[in-house]
Amino acid sequence: MQTQLYFATNRGHEGADRFAPDRYGPRFSSDGMENLRFGRVRFDVDEAKVLELLARRREHTGAGDGEALQDYFARCVKSSQRIECYRESIPDPKVNETAQGAAVKLGSQAMFADLQADMQQGRDLLVLVHGFNVSWEEAVATAAAFEAVINRHDPQLDAGQPFQPVRVLLFTWPSDGSALPWASYKSDRADARGTSGALGRALLKLRDQLHLLGREVRQKSVEVQQLRARMADRPAAEVERAVAQLEATQLCGQKLHLLAHSMGNYVLQNALSRVYEFSPGNQLPRIFDHVFLCAPDVDDDALEEGGGLARVHQVAQAVAVYHNPGDTALKISDYTKGNPDRLGQRGAARPQALHQKVYQVDCAPLVTGLTQHSYYTNGRIARDIRLALQGQTPLARGLRATGLAPNCWSFVR
Prior knowledge:
Elements: E1 2-9, E2 11-14, E3 23-28, E4 37-44, H1 47-55, E5 57-58, E6 62-63, H2 66-80, E7 82-85, H3 107-119, E8 124-129, H4 136-150, E9 166-172, H5 183-230, H6 236-246, E10 256-261, H7 264-277, E11 290-294, E12 318-323, H8 328-335, H9 343-346, E13 358-362, H10 364-367, H11 379-389, E14 400-401, E15 408-410
Parallel strand pairs: 1-9, 8-9, 8-10, 10-11, 11-12, 12-13, 13-15
Antiparallel strand pairs: 1-4, 2-3, 4-7, 5-6, 14-15
């Protein structure tokens, strides 16, 4: 069985052909830290093994062992990966991308076209930004595992409910990939700051693509009205066939989402500054429906006014923070790296000070005691994220109000 994942990266490629590399390494692209490559990676898996891990039950989090699936996928990626980048020509560095002309082929545009076609099949798109100490293979495995788990349909829990499939697009940056507790963390944090420009560029490209599609839809609406006027004396069935053919390229109606994990939230925090720099007015562009900040390795006041993530609500309809006081990785970040309390431990320092779009979910009843902090890929938590994508409120998803503030919720064991 073959698995496929879309990706965007500013990692440096390894191998002779940059459009069909052997893999991506721990350093920035030789073309600069903001250079982006877009593509797909395919790898072989044992379908029976994948189904077994998706059905495996973990204590409290239910069926779907996403962390074990990540480990399995990482081995499969390492042994069988085939990377295909969208080929592109070299643009004129003196000319803005929008003015390059038809002769210049951009990889981002080719990937957006494929993703748009994929979304027209009824899938939402979720951009995943990984965290600290993650190699290329581990990044691909994490995104692929999350896509598999979030799309797992539980015949008992999901019986009779609408099911919204999700496509995951991986944004992977040169996270060190080693386990040195001091050096690799400092290296990754510096690389996270450096890579924020690349993520900012990617978000700006996405913004421009959405604006372009919006203009096309508005123009299509005008053309439909003109077509109906021209065919006013024709049979109704013939008119509707012509209109349906004309409307075939309209927006699919699916939604875009973003999930940042661990230090990926620090990348996002810095990327928002880049987006703001190139956005008109005093607001960030609305790009996403939901933004999920999972085990965020940023200060616990980052969402407050003046904080690094204070504007994140402007790019989304809703922002959810998933945290766990027992997160060992964030305790290490807190105590041994000299960082202030982390948002991913106990949530926001002052939840009453958050924007009304922002709410937080305490995952401790499901994951207390686990040493890893990729718990968002496991059973009930991944399902909760999927239900949020479908528009269900925390109460409808079975979460419990903690009483700390109206925006504070908790899983129930």
